[in-house]
Write a structure and sequence with these properties.
10 helices, about 0% strand
Length: about 220
């Protein structure tokens, strides 16, 4: 979100900012949010970038998934295998979960340094255990998923989804402090990650902080 602003951002900022004059001493409570002091210009740039990201991220993710689904199975790279795995994972069935695990393992084999493969495999293992798709047992799946999530984070420390999932697994295993720490790290990286907000709330509630865990309806 930082760096040299794009032309579009500069245009937006130029339109949004107008310096106050001695003839318009509006109090802060009545000040138009589009009129910002020069000191706030970079904060406004970040707000614009964040708003655009929230708006376009789902569409980009959907386009990537559709592109991966159009590829012939024999020509998948690690990213495409991962995307296909996510598609099957979302079907929530025995057959699809098995295909998802297979595709995530393929992603790991194709690129052992790709964090998404390990994260996806961790998701699939927990979903299989919770959904009763295999008889390996939840404790075993939790242990394996925790190791996979930690591997994903080791490869990409900025993977907020992996940190969120690790927090989820830690909460399952009774480590409320560890879970809260991980989802807080995830939110520091990606403040709009809905799953991280949800698991943060769960960790707070299970820690006896139900009011903080529920939050306010307009908080996020």
């Amino acid at each position: 979100m930082y760096g040299t602003p794009s032309t579009a951002s500069c245009i937006c900022l130029a339109c949004a900012w107008r310096p106050a004059t001695p003839h318009e001493p509006d109090p802060p409570s009545r000040r138009d949010p589009r009129r910002r002091d020069l000191a706030d210009i970079f904060e406004l740039q970040d707000e614009i970038t964040e708003a655009v990201t929230i708006a376009v991220a789902p569409a980009i993710a959907d386009a990537e998934l559709r592109r991966a689904m159009r590829k012939p199975p024999g020509s998948l790279d690690a990213w495409a295998a991962h995307q296909r795995g996510l598609w099957h994972l979302g079907k929530y069935s025995v057959e699809d979960n098995g295909l998802a695990e297979k595709l995530f393992r393929q992603a790991v084999d194709l690129d052992p340094a790709f964090a998404g493969g390990y994260r996806g495999l961790a998701y699939a293992q927990i979903q299989a255990a919770v959904g009763g798709f295999h008889t390996g047992g939840l404790p075993k799946a939790q242990s394996s998923a925790k190791a996979l999530a930690r591997r994903a984070i080791a490869l990409d420390g900025a993977d907020a989804e992996a940190r969120t999932f690790l927090g989820e697994v830690l909460l399952y295993r009774g480590d409320r402090e560890g879970a809260l720490a991980e989802v807080e790290r995830a939110l520091a990286m990606t403040p709009n990650l809905a799953g991280a907000h949800g698991w943060r709330g769960a960790a707070l509630i299970f820690s006896g902080l139900s009011k903080e865990g529920r939050g306010r309806p307009d908080e996020h």
